[in-house]
Amino acid sequence: MILYLDTSALVKLYVRERGRALVRKAVAAATQVATSRVAYPEARAAFARRRREGALAERALRRVVADLDRDLPSLVVVEAPADVARRAGDLAQAHALRGFDAIHLACALELARAGADTAFLAFDARLAAAARSVGLREPGTTRPPRRPGVKAP
After folding, report:
1. Residues 130-149 pLDDT 10s
2. Does the chain have fewer CB atoms within 10 Å around its N or its C terminus?
3. CATH code, 100
4. Alpha-carbon distance 16 to 60, whole Å?
């Protein structure tokens, strides 16, 4: 199973916050972990924000950035060419998603459409609901049942 992590889930691998144990368990069960190219700058921005807010010391910031840089080559990094970006736009409109959330969802769908058994993990309720509605499952669950009017990935 390929586990797709949006940035909210990816960040939990590096900083202590609610949901971290769930992410680690899901990663341990996955054969591969995937994310979008946009996750890197989003994660770096999240780390920097924690530093500015005093939740991370400067030394800890350097460590989490180094850890992310070390781990990045082992991730399946999904790009967002024009067709994926267009699909992201459609998803943003249909599900009231923010731009980068829509890119994450479109990238995960790209993996699923290529035939990969893909689970999707996000901690944004709207994004997680959108993922379920387009047929992606959460880690540890089976594929959600097809619903009338919902296109399969």
Report:
1. 999 999 999 987 655 443 33
2. N
3. 3.40.50.1010
4. 11
